[in-house]
Each structure stands twice: as C-alpha cells, then as structure tokens.
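[User]
Protein folding is very new to me. Any chance you could explain this protein sequence and its structure tokens? I have pasted everything here:
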Amino acid sequence: MGYFPLQLVVCPCVDGTSWVLADSFEFQYRRSGQIERIVVPRGFETDFASVPLPFRGVLPPWGKYGYASVIHDWMYWDQSLSRAAADRVLLEGMRTLNVWPPVRWTIYCGVRLFGRDAWARNSEDKSRGLNRQRSELPNDQPATTSFIAPRPSSVRPHWRNPSAAAPILIGRRRQQRN
C-alpha cells in the first residue's frame, strides 16, 4: 500500500482542462521491500486523468483517482521508469486511494491498451524542447483561486505513524508565499 504525504494544490490554466501544481506533490510506495518516492515538482502541468471525451460521463478527469492520475501524468512525462512501471504505480496509487476495483481496473487496462500513444507523444514533445513544467504559476489565475484537493481520509501508510500525516485542507489557497 502506498502513501500520499502531501496535499495536492493546483492552479487552473486558461484552457479549462489543464492545471499547474502550486506545490510539489509525491507518492510513496513499497517496491521490493524499499520505500520508493515519486516527486512531482511545483509548476508541472497536468490534465488529471486523460479520459477520452465520450467516456467522461462515466470516468471524469477528476475523481477519487485524481491523486494517482497526477503522479501518472508526471511519470509519463519524466519517463525515468518504463511505461509498464508507470502504469503499475498508477494501479498502486488507485489501490491506496481505495478506488472501486472495477473503476481501478478499467483505468489501468485503458492506459495499458491505449497509453502507448501518449508515452510516444510525450517523448517526441520533450525531444522538440516542449516543457510541461512552468517556472511561474499561470498569470491568468491568481494563487488565491487555487484548488486544494481534499486528501482522502482513507490514505494512511501502514509503515508510518498515521498521526504524522498532513491535515486535510479544504477551501481556497492563502495568499502566495513571498
């Protein structure tokens, strides 16, 4: 079972589909007895779950699987692990978030069957010099309108002290830090 130790804080982009991380975000999980960390840097642009338009009525871009989707987006962009490993981390993240098994397996099978194009497109975009990591938050939205995604209460690591977990924050983000 994995662990999301940080709150997800994002700012909306003008396009209406993309969001930029206002703070870094991470997922910790066990692999071969070791705790592994996937860290998504501040400024990374995500669309959450890249669900094809005809299926968004059933699987919207943001759902209980939202945290895992951000980690998966980063892994598909970063490509420091294999595509199969990135998809397994998505599955582990959804398991950690207690996503209903039929939804979890539908999303996992979807990325295994159809994720190859997104992986190749990200590789090509990187080789052309495109960057999905911004140095600044979007100018189109002030940091006060940032969304702080509620941290699922069921997300507790079994290898750590649960009392050390980050609090659940709901509401608008405070003024941007200096």
About this structure: Confidence is low (pLDDT under 50) at residues 141-146, 154-178. The chain is about 30% helix and 15% strand. The chain has one domain: 8-164. The beta strands are 8-12, 19-21, 25-31, 34-40, 45-46, 147-149.
